[in-house]
Amino acid sequence: MSNLSTTAWIVHNLGLATSLGGTMFGQGAFQPALQKDVSDEQKRGQISDDAWSRYSWWNLAAHGLVAATWFAGRTKLSGREISGNARKLTMVKDVLVVASLVSGVSSVIVGKVLGAKAKRQQQDNRTSDEEVDGLRAAVKTIGTVNMVTNAAISAVTTALSMEGMKSLPAVAVSRLLP
Fold first, then answer.
1. Closest Cα to residue 51, out of 21, 26, 18?
2. Residues 87-146: pLDDT tens digits?
3. Tens digits of per-residue pLDDT, 151-174?
């Protein structure tokens, strides 16, 4: 495999790790810690909004790298070069990468709307707002979909790797890639 292909694969996996790891950390550790350890709802909202706003740029970049490297590679290979199973996995990964990109971007957009509405809620000294609560639930759901989708991409990537190692023609073709 050439240096460019290897670099693209590394960038792809780093983007996937960034997106998946960030969402897992946020939902599994950061948000629960805020709920448990920061009793002031306004302060908790400010910390959460600040942290997620900072991470959203990393997350968008990570999703962009995953999609760009995958679809750039797809212009060269279809999966047919390896096996019928690899072709099916390649098509599954196409769908998963699009779903990851859509859910990743959606979570950032909905998160930004949530942040703005939560700030207005705080400025108006309201303690509860159905719209803000609904947006929080939507962000959590979209984030969970994104996390599961990215975990599935990781699994399919591993399966494709294993399929590729079984195929002598695939190894030969991969050496010709940039």
1. 26
2. 899 999 999 999 999 999 999 999 999 989 888 888 887 767 888 889 999 999 999 999
3. 999 999 999 888 877 766 655 555
Range of the domain at 144: 3-176
Only one residue has tokens 């950390």, namely: 25
Read off the tokens for 90. Answer: 């390649």
Reference 160, options 99, 39, 74, 101; nearest CA is 74
| Structural domain total, the chain | 1
Nearest CA to 123 out of 42, 39, 33, 26 is that of 42
Identity of the amino acid at 76: K
Distance CA 125, CA 77 (A): 56
User: Residue 22 burial (CB < 10 Å; 0-12/13-18/19+)?
Assistant: buried
| d(C-alpha 177, C-alpha 2), whole Å | 6
pTM for the whole thing?
A: 0.85
Q: Give percent helix, percent strand, percent coil of the chain, each to the nearest 5.
A: 85, 0, 15
* Rounded CA separation 110/137 (Å): 10
